C-alpha cells in the first residue's frame, strides 16, 4: 500500500472527529442557555414607594361664574328708530347720565311739538270757559240767566279741563319718547359690549351697548342640595380666578333659602371687592372650602391604587412577596390619595409594575423617590402660589374631591 493510500483513512477519521466535536460543542452551548427556572417563580421587577402619615381634611370645590355687581343692556324702551350716533366702544369708562347713543327721532319730536301745541290751545279755551262760567254764575245770582244755562257753561269748562288733562298725559308720553332717543348710562361703569352701529334700526327691547359695574364682583354658583349646610353665609372660601390665575380669599355673602325645583341645587354668592377692576366678568371662578375637622390618614400616590367607590386596592411588599390590600378611601387631592390608617405609614407600595402582579408573587423591588406631594399642615388645604385677601365676602361653585 502506498503512502497516499494510508493517509486517506487518517484524514477521514480526523474530519469525522472534528465534526462530532463541533456538534457536541453546539449542543452544549444551546443547552446552557435554556432557563430551567419557571417564569412564574422568578421575582418580578417592580418600583415601590413608601406610604406616609398625613392629616387629611375633606374639602369641596365649586365652579361658578364671576358676575358684575350691576349690568344693564342699554337700548330704546318706547320708540323704533334708526341709530344716529354711538359714542362709546367696549372698555370705555362712563359715569351715570353720560350719553351713550342717540336715535333719529325727528318724527317723535314733531309729534311731541304737535301735542304740546294742542295742549296750549286747550288750556287757553279752558281758561276762557272758566272765566265765562264764573260770570254766568254771577248773573245767575241776580236771576239774569237761567240755571240751565249756568250749568251748561260750568259743564263745558269742566269738560275742557278734563280734555286738558288728557293732552297733558299725551304730552308726557310723547316727551318720554323724545327722551328715549337719547340713551344714557344708568350707573357708573364700563362698556362691556357694543352690539349695533350708526345706521342700524332698533326696536324697543333691543340692546345697543351694555354697561357693567365691576367695583364689586359676585361669584355665583349652585351646589347640590346635600351641600346646603356646607355653604352657610360667612363660610370662608378660597377662590381661583381662571382668567387671571389669581387666588383670592373671601366668605359666602348670601345663600338662597330654597333649592331650584328642576335641578335640586342651591344658589349662593360671594362678593369680592375689586376697586381696581382687574377681574374680568363672565369668566370662571373656582371656590374651595374645607369641611369638618382634619382626620388622620395615610397618603399614597394616586397612580399606585385602583379606586372603586370608597375603596382602594394597592399592592404592598412584605419581604419579597407582594400582597393585595383593600383600604377605605378618605379623599384625594391632586396626585395624592388619602386612605384609612389601617394602611400604616412606612409600608412599601408598588407603583410601577403592579398591573402584572398577582397575590403572593415574588418581586424584586426598587425604591423610587417619593412622587407624592410634600404634606401640608393639613392635607386638603390648597397650595396656591399666592393668595390675595379681599375685603368683601366671597365663596363659589363646587366639585367634590371625594371619590
Helix content: 10-25%
- Number of helical elements: 3
CATH architecture of the largest domain: Beta Barrel
Q: Which segments are poorly predicted (pLDDT under 50) over 5 or more consecutive residues?
A: 371-403
CATH topology of the largest domain: Elongation Factor Tu (Ef-tu), domain 3
Computed CA radius of gyration, to the nearest angstrom: 45 Å
| Mean residue pLDDT | 82
The named CATH superfamily of the largest domain: Efflux pump adaptor protein, beta barrel domain
End-to-end Cα distance, whole Å, is 99 Å
Give an overview of the whole structure.
- The protein is of the alpha+beta class and 403 residues long.
- The protein folds into three domains: 43-67 and 215-403, Beta Barrel (Elongation Factor Tu (Ef-tu), domain 3); 76-103 and 180-207, Beta Barrel (OB fold (Dihydrolipoamide Acetyltransferase, E2P)), CATH 2.40.50; 106-179.
- It contains three helices and 23 strands.
- It has helices at residues 3-32, 106-141, 147-179; strands at residues 44-50, 52-53, 59-74, 81-86, 93-94, 99-104, 182-184, 189-194, 201-202, 209-224, 236-241, 246-255, 265-273, 283-290, 298-301, 306-308, 311-318, 321-333, 336-339, 348-352, 363-367, 388-389, 398-400.
- The strands form four sheets. Strands 2-15-19-18-17-16 form a six-stranded antiparallel β-sheet, with no helix packed on it. It has a six-stranded antiparallel beta barrel with strand order 3-10-13-12-11-14. Strands 7-6-4-9 form a four-stranded antiparallel β-sheet, with no helix packed on it.
- β18 (321-333) and β19 (336-339) form a beta hairpin.
- The radius of gyration is 45 Å and the shape is elongated.
- The chain starts with a helix and ends with a strand.
- Residues 371-403 have low confidence and may be disordered.
Amino acid at each position: 500500500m502506498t503512502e497516499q493510500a494510508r493517509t486517506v483513512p487518517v484524514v477521514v477519521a480526523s474530519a469525522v472527529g472534528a465534526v462530532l466535536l463541533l456538534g457536541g460543542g453546539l449542543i452544549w452551548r444551546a443547552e446552557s442557555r435554556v432557563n430551567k427556572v419557571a417564569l412564574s417563580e422568578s421575582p418580578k421587577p417592580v418600583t415601590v414607594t413608601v406610604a406616609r402619615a398625613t392629616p387629611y381634611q375633606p374639602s369641596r370645590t365649586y365652579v361658578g361664574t364671576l358676575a358684575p355687581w350691576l349690568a344693564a343692556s342699554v337700548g330704546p324702551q318706547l320708540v323704533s328708530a334708526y341709530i344716529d350716533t354711538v359714542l362709546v366702544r367696549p372698555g370705555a369708562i362712563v359715569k351715570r347720565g353720560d350719553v351713550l347713543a342717540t336715535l333719529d327721532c325727528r318724527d317723535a319730536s314733531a309729534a311731541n311739538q304737535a301735542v304740546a301745541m294742542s295742549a296750549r290751545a286747550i288750556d287757553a279755551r279752558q281758561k276762557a270757559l272758566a272765566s265765562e262760567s264764573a260770570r254766568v254764575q254771577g248773573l245767575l245770582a241776580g236771576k239774569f240767566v237761567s240755571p240751565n244755562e249756568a250749568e251748561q257753561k260750568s259743564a263745558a269748562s269742566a269738560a275742557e279741563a278734563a280734555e286738558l288733562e288728557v293732552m297733558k298725559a299725551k304730552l308726557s308720553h310723547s316727551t318720554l319718547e323724545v327722551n328715549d332717543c337719547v340713551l344714557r348710562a344708568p350707573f357708573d361703569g364700563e362698556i362691556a359690549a357694543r352690539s349695533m352701529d350708526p345706521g342700524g334700526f332698533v326696536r324697543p327691547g333691543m340692546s345697543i351697548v351694555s354697561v357693567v359695574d365691576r367695583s364689586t364682583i359676585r361669584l355665583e354658583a349652585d351646589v347640590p342640595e346635600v351641600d346646603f349646610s356646607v355653604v352657610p353665609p360667612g363660610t370662608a372660601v378660597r377662590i381661583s380666578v381662571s382668567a387671571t390665575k389669581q387666588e383670592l380669599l373671601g366668605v359666602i355673602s348670601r345663600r338662597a333659602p330654597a333649592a331650584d325645583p328642576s335641578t335640586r341645587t342651591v344658589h349662593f354668592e360671594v362678593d369680592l371687592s375689586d376697586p381696581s377692576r382687574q377681574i374680568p366678568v363672565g369668566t370662571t371662578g373656582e371656590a374651595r372650602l374645607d369641611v369638618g375637622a382634619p382626620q388622620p390618614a395615610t397618603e399614597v400616590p394616586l397612580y399606585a391604587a385602583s379606586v372603586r367607590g370608597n375603596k382602594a386596592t394597592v399592592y404592598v411588599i412584605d419581604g419579597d412577596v407582594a400582597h393585595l390590600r383593600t383600604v377605605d378611601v378618605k379623599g384625594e387631592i391632586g396626585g395624592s390619595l388619602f386612605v384609612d390608617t389601617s394602611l400604616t405609614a412606612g409600608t412599601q407600595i408598588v407603583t410601577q409594575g403592579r398591573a402584572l402582579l398577582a397575590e403572593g408573587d415574588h418581586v424584586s423591588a426598587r425604591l423610587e423617590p417619593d412622587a407624592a406631594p410634600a404634606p401640608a399642615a393639613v392635607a386638603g388645604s390648597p397650595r396656591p402660589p399666592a393668595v390675595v385677601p379681599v375685603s368683601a365676602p366671597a365663596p363659589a361653585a363646587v366639585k367634590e374631591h371625594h371619590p
